[in-house]
Design a protein that fits this description.
Number of helices: 6
Number of strands: 0
Keywords: Membrane, Transmembrane, Transmembrane helix
Number of domains: 2
Structural class: mainly alpha
Subcellular location: Membrane
Strand content: under 5%
Order of helices and strands: HHHHHH
Membrane topology: Multi-pass membrane protein
């Protein structure tokens, strides 16, 4: 209301409108006598014989946006990571696919290296003592992968640059597929792949 009143006063009191009113037969009443009310002004409607009283207190003008300090946003906190055994080793937990992927990467590279150096296929490697190495490697990599997870350290917090947690996940998936494809090819062929 106060803004509209001030805007109308500005428009009607402008010299362009005043000169226009002189040339035409229309005359506008003087609006300059309308009191200006601040945004926080209080109006009191008296009932009956009571008279309206105006407050003698000064009106408080709200601060402008440049005077109000902008609050700094809080730092985003990392979500709490569960360190319970069941949560870490759950099907959708952080451990199973990563551990399997890491073992598949080691197994795929080791299988190809032994096949190139000795000419033995995957099944021959397993039957001639490879299962002992497989169990030892599995235990070592599983413990090495679980210890940080039980301490609450996430894989994502330690991944930077090219060595990201997503890159490790995809490499593990490809290594799992590669190891299965290598074993299947040697089974169908009946001979080592290389």
């Amino acid at each position: 209301m106060a803004f509209t009143s001030a805007a109308l006063q500005t428009i009607f009191a402008s010299p362009a409108l005043a000169s226009r009113t002189r040339t035409t037969s229309y005359s506008f009443p003087r609006i300059a006598s309308v009191p200006r009310l601040s945004r926080n002004a209080v109006r009191c409607m008296a009932t009956g014989d009571e008279k309206t009283e105006q407050s003698s207190e000064p009106t408080v003008v709200p601060p402008t946006t440049s005077q109000i300090p902008t609050p700094t946003p809080p730092k985003p906190q990392a979500p709490k990571v569960s360190t319970k055994f069941g949560d870490v080793l759950a099907f959708s937990g952080p451990a199973p696919e990563r551990i399997n992927g890491r073992l598949a990467m080691v197994g795929f590279v080791a299988a190809l290296a032994v096949e190139l150096s000795r000419g033995q296929g995957v099944f021959t490697q397993i039957s001639e003592g490879g299962s002992t190495w497989f169990v030892a490697t599995s235990v070592l990599f599983t413990l090495a992968s679980l210890i940080p997870l039980f301490k609450g350290v996430t894989v994502e917090s330690k991944s930077k640059g090219l060595m990201t947690s997503d890159a490790e996940m995809w490499n593990g998936r490809f290594a799992m597929l590669g190891l299965v494809a290598l074993a299947f090819t040697e089974y169908v062929k009946g001979a080592p792949f290389v």
